[in-house]
Design a protein that fits this description.
Layout: H1 2-31, E1 33-39, H2 47-66, E2 74-80, H3 86-99, E3 105-107, H4 111-124, E4 128-130, E5 143-145, H5 154-162, E6 171-177, H6 180-195, E7 203-208, H7 216-226, E8 232-237, H8 243-252, E9 262-264, E10 284-287, H9 296-312, H10 325-344, H11 349-356, E11 360-362, E12 368-371, E13 378-379, E14 383-387, E15 393-398
Parallel strand pairs: 1-2, 1-3, 3-4, 4-5, 6-7, 6-8, 8-9, 9-10
Antiparallel strand pairs: 10-14, 11-12, 12-13, 14-15
Helix pairs in contact: 2-10, 3-4, 10-11
Length: 425
């Protein structure tokens, strides 16, 4: 019996030694990298907006790796395509966290995709960096929101259109894609407009499904609504590739900015790429960054992206490189996460969350971006830009400095007393 045990022990030792020898390179390689997930739609209706966020994330990771990586280790991106399929976002997020063992995920665009993955990140105590403007009414320990809250985009845009400089609008069309972000944003805007004395009869609200392509009847309806005597403005929360037919039909029906200005919250330089922008001159977008902003940091950012896009042969961008707000928010978020990991000397979620509080980064938009010490949102400047004939934006209004995010809108009655601090679960 003892002889058998000794023989078995020797055999196991030999097998273990062989396994170590064969697997050493793989184990060492895994230990030398930190995996990070990229969760963006590369196909389907949202690919028009999200694909470039995958590309700018890869550029940022290359930049960080070229400077020595994070904690002396290279970042290893793991890219997945949830294909504009909201339940698939949750499946892909779970795959990234449990199978690929990523330390963080950068991704999502629509709020319905973010809502889909949120339980996954909370249940696994993992981190998501979300780079797009959203409707607020959410605050999670496991999410850092590097896009705008409503008070950093929607409310300032409507205030501008109500002002003399913005055309003194009195009637309002709230036009969006039919999902949580437009509906919740418009709920906030309705409450805001009513607080300013706007009558119910002076607010028109319309929704279209994702991928909607025929805007002929809706724009005819807007023209009729606008013809009833008061200055009218359109607030657009249309998302994805539906923006192309919407803006084309706007041009076809001659709805000019001088007659009925449209301000968009999800249309930037990238979405206007496939549109003849000459008939759209003067229409507006509200963001926290535009490619046309003049600052040394933005000059460097645009140059870096242009060189990267050309070197990688990125479709559309190798000939006409464009940057936009969610690209900037992605870039800032990845750099801040890297800084926080270096500060924490760990990729542990709770340690990184603690290290994220108060992180700063010189943003391409010309301001120093600061992560709020408590509410997981960036302090962001607000810019309103007019569409130019070349598809760029001329900034016509901006805040004096960064605005602190208010995730729970003051215009929603049930938010009274809510704290802007994530609950610990």
């Amino acid at each position: 019996m003892n002889l058998s045990r000794r023989t078995a022990t020797k055999s196991l030792t030999a097998l273990a030694a062989a396994a170590c020898t064969l697997g050493f390179a793989t184990i060492a390689q895994a230990a030398d990298t930190i995996k990070v997930g990229i969760l963006h739609s590369l196909s389907g209706t949202m690919a028009i907006s999200e694909t470039v966020l995958k590309d700018v994330a890869l550029m940022t990771i290359d930049e960080i790796n070229a400077k020595g990586g994070v904690m002396g280790k290279k970042l290893e991106p793991v890219v997945v395509d949830p294909a504009s399929n909201w339940p698939l976002f949750a499946e892909k997020a779970k795959q990234l966290i449990t199978q690929d063992k990523v330390s963080v995920v950068f991704g999502c665009w629509t709020s319905v995709s973010r809502k889909s993955v949120l339980p996954v990140f909370e249940e696994t105590n993992s981190l998501l960096f979300y780079p797009v403007q959203y409707e607020g009414e959410e605050l999670s320990k496991n999410v850092f929101y590097t896009g705008a809250a409503p008070n950093q985009q929607a409310i300032p845009a409507v205030e501008y259109l109500m002002s003399k400089d913005g055309g003194s609008a009195k009637r309002w069309v709230l036009l969006g894609t039919d999902y949580v972000y437009p509906r919740t944003t418009n709920k906030i805007l309705r409450a805001f407009l009513k607080s300013k004395g706007v009558a119910e009869a002076d607010i028109m609200e319309e929704y279209t499904p994702f991928g909607h392509a025929d805007y002929q009847s809706i724009i005819a309806k807007i023209k009729k609504f606008a013809s009833e005597g008061k200055k009218t403005a359109v607030v657009s929360t249309i998302n994805g590739d539906s923006n192309v037919p919407f803006y084309k039909e706007l041009g076809n029906q001659g709805l000019k900015a001088t007659d009925v200005p449209v301000v968009a919250f999800s249309v930037g330089e990238e979405e206007l790429r496939g549109v003849d922008t000459k008939p759209l001159v003067g229409h507006l977008a509200a963001w926290n960054y535009f490619m046309s902003i003049k600052s040394p940091a933005n000059t460097a950012f645009v140059k870096q992206w242009s060189e990267y896009a050309k070197a990688k042969g990125i479709a559309g961008h190798k000939d006409k490189p464009l940057t936009n707000d969610p690209m900037e928010a992605t870039y800032i978020g990845i750099h801040m996460w890297a800084q926080a990991v270096n500060k924490a000397k760990s990729t542990d979620t709770d340690k990184v969350i603690a290290a994220m509080a108060g992180q700063t980064f010189p943003a391409p938009g010309g301001f120093t971006s600061t992560m709020d010490k408590e509410n997981h949102h960036l302090h962001k400047p607000v810019f309103i830009g007019e569409v130019k004939a070349d598809g760029q934006f001329n900034v016509v209004w901006k805040t004096k400095g960064p605005v602190v995010a208010d995730p729970w809108s003051d215009y929603i009655a049930e938010n009274k007393g809510k704290k802007n601090v994530p609950e610990k679960k």
